[in-house]
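Regression test case RT-17, inverse folding.

Input:
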């Protein structure tokens, strides 16, 4: 998420923040994939599929909450630099 979130339009980021936990509409799924978000079963931020879009994982929703509150989320363990 850290890589594609900044590439979304401000309007899309606001929508995801205001509707955190809701199904992500198909047009936003397309924007996310266009920004580099790879939707796969092993992507940490992907939850379940919905009728017309998808749901983000609980961890992704927490990440959005932290960003919305002006916090900087901790890097995920598998995303951290092994030399640090």
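Golden output:
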């Amino acid at each position: 998420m850290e890589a594609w979130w900044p590439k979304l339009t401000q309007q899309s980021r606001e929508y995801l923040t205001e509707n955190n936990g809701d199904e992500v509409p198909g047009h936003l799924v397309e924007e996310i994939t266009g920004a580099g978000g790879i939707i796969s079963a092993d992507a940490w931020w992907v939850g379940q599929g919905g009728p017309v879009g998808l749901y983000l994982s609980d961890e992704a929703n927490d990440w959005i909450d932290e960003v919305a509150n002006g916090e900087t989320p901790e890097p995920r363990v598998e995303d951290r630099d092994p030399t640090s």
